[in-house]
Amino acid sequence: MRKTIVAGNWKMHKTQKETVALLEEISSKKPNTATEIIVAPTFVNLSKAVEVTKGKGITVAAQNMHQAEGGAFTGEIAASMLTDIGVNTVILGHSERRAYFHETDALLANKVNTALKHEMRVIFCFGEELKDRQQNNHFNIVEYQLRDGLFHLEKKDWAHIVLAYEPVWAIGTGETASPEQAQEMHQFIRSLVEKVYGFEIADNLTILYGGSVKPDNAKEIFSKPDVDGGLIGGAALKADDFLAIVNGF
Ligand SMILES: O=C(CO)COP(=O)(O)O
After folding, report:
1. pLDDT by residue (tens digit) across 163-178?
2. Contact call for residues 231 and 210 (beta carbons, < 8 A)
3. Ligand 1 atom index nearest CA of 210
4. By three-state DSSP, how is residue 208 classified?
5. Rounded distance from Cα 172 to ligand 1 centre (Å)
6. Measured from the CA of 11, which atom of ligand 1 is nearest?
7. Superfamily classification of domain 5-247
8. Among the atoms of ligand 1, which is closest to the Cα of residue 236?
9. 99: left (phi over 0), alpha (psi -120 to 50) or beta
């Protein structure tokens, strides 16, 4: 059975006080579920988040990290700094990082390598822009992103990879991919991985959907056979909404 995950990407939201309050509310209302719950607060609140969620069945992830082991990279965070405070999962390749911070597939391949070297789990994000879909180029774009970001990996590495398909046009726009569009792309993604790495790895791979997932559409999206959970932005900032999405399984 594939692992199901609902992850909240908090982006640049929540002070430390707000982080603690939200995590306490999520912990206290959290259902007993086989679905893994992940939260990704900002860097400055990660230590606190690890402390507050200890023993509560909530995984804390980082939203980004640098590819180098360390050095003169002002303002950046290394993998060893994350694992040192108990953060062993990292989101890489989010479309906001790609768009605003010019992260390329080649750079992301490096970041993935560094994360894996530190035995971290990677939630690797990718997805097409609106113009790609309008030009019917979305399958190609996704294929290139996966090929250039991940297909250099060895078979054993895939145990530490979670994919997150996030069509850029659906992020923060209120417009979500239809469950059929999500399923169509997720199936395509799984078939690509199968072609390169074989059935077992593809079949075991958790593929999340992200982009305007809300309590009222989560259930239908998650009901699709190749959608194994969600990466949630806006709706992850309120405990009740986030947990309603978790209950979508
Ligand atoms: O970017 C996202 C999660 O990483 C999705 O954001 P929204 O859920 O706000 O559309």
Report:
1. 999 999 998 887 888 9
2. yes
3. 5
4. strand
5. 6
6. 4
7. Aldolase class I (3.20.20.70)
8. 8
9. alpha
Length of the chain in residues, anyone? 249
Closest CA to 181 of 133, 140, 219, 230: 133
Counting ligand 1 atoms within 8 A of each CB, the residue from 13, 91, 92, 213 with the most, and so the one to mutate, is 213
CA-to-CA distance for 11 and 244, rounded, in angstroms?
20
Which tens digit of pLDDT belongs to each residue from 207-236? Answer: 999 999 999 999 999 999 999 999 999 999
ipTM strictly over 0.90?
yes
List the chain domain ranges. 5-247
End-to-end CA distance of the chain: 14
Rounded CA separation 88/104 (Å): 23
> Which residues on neighbouring strands pair with residue 165, listed in sequence order?
126, 209
Known binding residues are 9-11, 172, 212, 233-234
CA angle, residues 175, 193, 128, in degrees to nearest 5: 25
In angstroms, what is the span from residue 159 Cα to ligand 1's centroid? 24
